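User: Please predict the structure of the protein below. I'd like the answer in structure-token form so I can feed it into my own downstream comparison script.

Assistant: Understood. Taking the following sequence of 129 residues as input:
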Amino acid sequence: QAQLVESGGGLTQAGGSLRLSCATSGRSFTSSAVGWFRQAPGNEREFVAAITWSGGITYYTDSVKGRFTISRDGAKDIVYLHMNILRPEDTAVYYCAVKNDMLIVSEALAERESWYDDWGQGTQVSVSP
């Protein structure tokens, strides 16, 4: 089982940038897929982006395409979510999640919360107008 820790959240103005990090302990990201989800107050948790550790295949929800980039650092075993041109509607708690021992992947799978095995505690991102 992986223990995931998110960091990098904070408060910024619209148009600003933040970089979120997802670090793992107890289990490497090797052979996994890592996803980012977010949950705004009063809303259900939604998919944001995902990346496969092997091959670096990426998926994004439409509302963040062109603004967010997901990446991985193999040496540090960290997944990043680079968020640019932030909007007030990006305000949410952001969670990372890992699918261990990933054998197959598709966009449909990567968007599904139930596909992932372990989750972090979340980090708050707030964007002011």
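That's the full token string. The longest strand covers residues 18-25.
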